[in-house]
Each structure stands twice: as C-alpha cells, then as structure tokens.
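thought: fold this chain, then report.
action: predict
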Amino acid sequence: MKKVPMRQCVGCAEMKSKKDLLRVIRTPEEEIVLDATGRKNGRGAYICANMECLKAARKRKGLERSLKVAISDDVYESLEQEMSKVAK
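observation:
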C-alpha cells in the first residue's frame, strides 16, 4: 500500500488527503495566490475547497499564521473569487 499524504486545513483544522485540499501560497514576491496545481514555489498552507473554511481561516487568522504574513481584505476577496471558480 502506498502512503497517502495528509495535510491540515487552516479553516476547519481537519486532517484530509493532500489532493482533497487547495494550496494557498506566499510567493517569493510576497503575493498570496491560490495554487491549484500544488507545485508552485513558495510557502504553502492548505484549505478545504469551500467558503466556510475560508471564512473560518480569515476569522481565526489561520492563513496569516501559516504563511507568516499579514493578509489584507482585498487579498481575501480575490481568494474567494478564485476559490469559487475552482470549487465548481
């Protein structure tokens, strides 16, 4: 049997399979973007593909803690827009 990589969602704090989660990264240029491929360079955090987890991560500052950077409201709004495209 092959080992399945597990990651923790920064919103709901549940351990899930890596391929079931979306990766949010902080690039070397200090941008916060959604990494649908999971292969881009940068510090990453994982989140479930639903809006409730993104709202919980925003409320608890889970993404900010994981990515070690302050995240503005407009970045959260762009993440919500990108996530709505990917989650469908």
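thought: worth noting. The chain has a mean pLDDT of 91.
final: tokens above.
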